């Protein structure tokens, strides 16, 4: 890099800004580096948006820490919030990129105006007695003469600017902003303690990382940090055990405390503390023989005792229980630590999940009583939103994307509603990270065009990620089209107009039900004789609401669960029984399909206790498996079928005489009485609607016959060019037989295949040249004749 400066030192912050300005100039299609590019690069450094550039320059951690300190000076100079700096940076980049054609990244020369800005920055450095040119000097020069693209975007501090002398300016009649006297001085990393060489080697010094600016900024959790600091200052039992569900931020709280300890306003006795994180896996790594692990632990304890300000942080502390023990030997890491913890020789922080605490640590009362327990609850949505905003800034810097605040809000709100069993903010951060990679890695093709502008992530991308990677259709209930479903069912079912009307009415209500309500999407009972379309209706519903993916339909034949012990096949074996480690069929389906339709076929045949198990699912939309893990049913539609008939539907109809219609109110009461014989009242009270399917009449069978015949005629005409005619006697015979067999539409389809379709296939295969066939009745069978083209035999 050739600077327009001679015989002066240039700080890494200016070199970094120069390289970024060169890249920005190429992306904006400029042939020269202009002051606007220098300003954009300066804003990127101030906004910590330079990770990739720093990596290319191979900057050390100490250099990055020095740049971060100077960036803090520049923030104070701008008097703008972090959000305002980010907004100004994006607006300036957008202004530079409008109506431009990006060019490949290559080395550019500076313009005359850029040279003038750098020379003025150097003059200001001399004026204030600086030894090397820093980003703060460059920012002063840029603020004096804002580029036209930045007017209105950058606040100017409204400070007085005393003019320099003619000798200082050397021909430049401009004024310079002076560096504020209260600007924070650059902090030098404190030397690592020489008294703890093994801890230095095996541990991760959180305090030093926080001082170097390499830890994520922690939002909120002030009360928890204060509580830990108070526990550490006790005269006895100065050990803290942080307990909380996975993903609530236990490690982040300790890292946040390490950052707070280095603050200028922190009391001196707390600023002396040094928090070092040690991995249990690292303690065991490389210990081949018995005694190696004990020796290593004793050395670490000796070093910890030698430094009264040292705090050891063990994440996943439950791994210490039984860790390192051999065979039946009682010695493990926890037992080695107990004497030192009991004598208060050192300070310790441990973190573990609630489940692991109950399983491993709580049974060991001697180990547990040496700790002060701090339970960490899941943050509220508002707190999680603040945390995710801070994390989104980190994603933007590393991935070079722009994340809308609406996307962050959507990630927090939707994961709170849709994803059960995980905690905020972890699950919302996962969705934001996945949304970033989802749009960045759209293809592995080498023809993919290089990115010239930051990718944009909005609410739409969040919803797409939830659907593709997590299996949730965010707007499933909103996209229900009752009219479309009605037309699909009417085209396939015969004689079920009243059942279809009842279902469509219920779906209209379902489409207005709020997603995430504390119960399943819907609970229906389809009742009626076999073969009338109950299962087909459930399958149609699954396709219409959740798409064509067949895996979104879970079918369970409840006739297989007639005995009480069969419940273990459905939900898993209880603890202590064979197969406890395996999931039951119901929970296995939920794990693979978090949103779909669950069909419980022939529910009346299930054991009463198995029916009762579904009460809590229907009531609250969730339950727990045999391992105590939550299982979410709030995004599923339940359909239960049963072959229960009202008393008026029990008899068979022979012939074509129309049955007299019973009073609908009487039919409803009779059906309710029949259902109450098989289900408890509290079970039926949780059902949204009971939909009765009618028994098929002779007219319904005629309708089914015409549909099957039309499909067969079209198929023969298309594939063979054969015209098919059927005598009325054949139609009457098949419908009368189906009515007598009383097996519904399913039985009629089998009858049609057996009596007509299969014999016709054999007849046509014997002479494929036949152009027309007439089907007639011959006793109790059908026969076939060749028909002339005019329809005569």
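^ Assign residues to that structure.
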């Amino acid at each position: 890099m050739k600077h327009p400066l001679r015989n002066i030192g240039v700080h890494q912050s200016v070199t970094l800004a120069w390289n970024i300005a060169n890249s920005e100039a190429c992306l904006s299609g400029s042939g020269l580096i202009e002051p606007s590019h220098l300003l954009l690069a300066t804003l990127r450094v101030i906004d910590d948006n330079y990770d990739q550039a720093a990596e290319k320059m191979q900057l050390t951690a100490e250099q990055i820490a020095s740049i971060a300190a100077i960036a803090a000076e520049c923030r104070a100079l701008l008097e703008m919030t972090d959000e305002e700096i980010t907004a100004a940076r994006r607006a300036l980049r957008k202004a530079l990129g409008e109506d431009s054609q990006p060019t490949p990244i290559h080395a550019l020369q500076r313009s005359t105006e850029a040279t003038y800005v750098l020379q003025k920055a150097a003059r200001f450095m001399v004026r204030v007695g600086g030894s090397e040119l820093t980003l703060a000097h460059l920012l002063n020069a840029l603020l004096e003469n804002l580029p036209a693209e930045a007017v209105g975007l950058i606040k100017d501090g409204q400070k007085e600017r005393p003019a320099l002398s003619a000798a200082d300016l050397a021909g430049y009649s401009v004024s310079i902003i002076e560096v504020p006297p209260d600007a924070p001085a650059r902090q030098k990393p404190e030397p690592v303690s020489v008294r703890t060489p093994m801890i230095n080697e095996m541990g991760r010094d959180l305090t030093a990382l926080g001082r170097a600016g390499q830890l994520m900024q922690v939002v909120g959790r002030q009360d928890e940090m204060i509580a830990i600091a108070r526990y550490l200052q006790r005269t006895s039992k100065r050990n803290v055990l942080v307990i909380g569900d996975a993903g609530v931020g236990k490690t982040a709280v300790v890292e946040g405390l390490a950052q707070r300890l280095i603050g200028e306003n922190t009391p001196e006795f707390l600023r002396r503390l040094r928090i070092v994180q040690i991995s249990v896996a690292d303690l065991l790594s490389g210990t081949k023989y018995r005694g190696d692990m004990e020796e290593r632990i004793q050395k670490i304890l000796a070093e910890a005792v030698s430094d009264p300000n040292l705090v050891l942080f063990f994440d996943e502390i439950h791994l210490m229980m039984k860790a390192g023990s051999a065979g039946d030997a009682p010695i493990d890491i926890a037992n080695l630590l107990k004497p030192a913890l009991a004598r208060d020789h050192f300070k310790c922080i441990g973190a573990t999940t609630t489940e692991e605490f109950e399983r491993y640590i709580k049974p060991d009362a001697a180990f547990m009583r040496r700790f002060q327990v701090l339970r960490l609850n899941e943050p509220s949505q508002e707190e999680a939103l603040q945390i995710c905003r801070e994390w989104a800034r980190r994603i933007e810097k590393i991935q070079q994307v722009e994340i809308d605040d609406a996307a962050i809000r959507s990630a927090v709100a939707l994961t709170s509603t849709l994803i059960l069993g995980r905690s905020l903010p972890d699950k919302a951060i996962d969705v934001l990270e996945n949304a970033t990679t989802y749009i960045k890695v759209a293809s592995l093709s080498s023809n993919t065009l290089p990115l010239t502008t930051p990718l944009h992530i909005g609410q739409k991308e969040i919803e797409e990620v939830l659907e593709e990677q997590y299996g949730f259709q965010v707007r499933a209930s909103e996209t229900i089209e009752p009219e479309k479903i009605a037309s699909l069912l009417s085209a396939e079912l015969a004689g079920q107009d009243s059942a279809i009307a009842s279902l469509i009415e219920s779906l209209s209500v379902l489409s207005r039900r709020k997603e995430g309500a504390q119960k399943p999407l819907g609970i229906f009972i389809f009742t009626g004789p076999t073969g009338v379309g109950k299962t087909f209706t459930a399958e149609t519903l699954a396709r219409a609401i959740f798409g064509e993916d067949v895996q979104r339909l879970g079918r369970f034949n409840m006739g297989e669960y007639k005995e009480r012990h069969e419940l273990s096949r459905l939900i898993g074996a209880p603890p202590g029984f064979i197969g406890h480690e395996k999931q039951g069929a119901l929970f296995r389906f939920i794990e693979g399909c978090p949103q779909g339709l669950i069909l419980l076929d022939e529910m009346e045949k299930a054991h009463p206790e198995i029916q009762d198990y579904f009460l809590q699912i229907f009531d609250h939309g969730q339950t727990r498996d045999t391992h105590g893990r939550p299982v979410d049913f709030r995004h599923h539609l339940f359909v239960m079928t049963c072959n229960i008939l009202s008393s008026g539907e029990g008899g068979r109809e022979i012939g074509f005489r129309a049955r007299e219609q019973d009073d609908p109110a009487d039919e409803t009461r009779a059906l309710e009485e029949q259902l109450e014989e098989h289900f408890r009242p509290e079970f039926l009270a949780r059902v949204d609607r009971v939909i009765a399917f009618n028994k098929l009449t002779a007219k319904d069978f005629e309708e089914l016959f015409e549909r099957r015949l039309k499909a067969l005629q079209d198929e023969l005409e298309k594939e063979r060019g054969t015209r098919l005619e059927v005598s009325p006697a054949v139609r009457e015979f098949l419908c009368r037989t189906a009515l007598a067999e009383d097996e519904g539409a399913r039985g009629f389809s089998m009858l049609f295949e057996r009596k007509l379709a299969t014999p016709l296939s054999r007849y046509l295969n014997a002479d494929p040249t036949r152009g027309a066939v007439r089907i007639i009745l011959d006793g109790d069978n059908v026969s076939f004749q060749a028909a002339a083209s005019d329809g005569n035999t």
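The domain at 197-376 is CATH 3.40.50.300 (Rossmann fold).
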